[in-house]
Amino acid sequence: MEINTNSLQFLFANTIRALFRQSGKEFENQELNLSPEQHYLLRILTSQEESIQSDLAEIMQKDKSAIMRHVDQLENAGYVIRVNDAIDRRKKHIVITEAGAIVLKKCEDVISNLMQKNLKGISEEELSSFKKVLIKLKENAEE
Predict the structure, then answer these.
(1) What is the C-alpha to C-alpha distance for residues 34 and 86, in angstroms, rounded to an integer?
(2) In Å, what is the CA distance from 16 to each residue of 11, 12, 23, 69, 83?
(3) 3-state secondary structure of 94
(4) Other beta carbons within 10 Å of 43
(5) How do the pLDDT tens digits run along the chain, 143 residues long?
(6) Running DSSP on this structure, what letter comes out for residue 1?
(7) What is the pTM of this model?
(8) Is 88 helix (H, G, I), strand (E, B) or coil?
(9) Is 96 helix (H, G, I), strand (E, B) or coil?
(10) For the chain, which domains are there?
């Protein structure tokens, strides 16, 4: 079976993988000891007041065990803590620590620099159109 390397699906998937590899390498070069997925998880934690494992799994579209592994690694690094829910003791909220906020800021700086590099030669109009197309593709896929 021949792969159509010009198909939208192939190009999109390869682009996402390339961006993740690039950010992962740069995190490593900067000695941040964080994967792109863990960075994304920390970003989610700062954007929500309360986060439990099942919510994070849904947002990241990953299974709960994969999220648990990431949370375990982040907790071992001191970037997050688990806090018992006041009402349901079975629930544990995942909360970013001060160390997690510091490493997240460093990651955000790396991502910002990479995006400036990657967007070179792309106009604001092209970027705006691309975002609109992505939104429409996502909406159509969720129908």
Answers:
(1) 30
(2) 9, 6, 11, 22, 33
(3) strand
(4) 15
(5) 567 777 888 898 999 999 999 999 999 999 998 999 999 999 999 987 668 888 888 888 889 899 999 999 999 999 999 988 788 878 888 999 999 999 999 999 999 999 999 999 999 999 999 999 999 998 999 88
(6) -
(7) 0.82
(8) coil
(9) strand
(10) 8-116 (1.10.10.10)
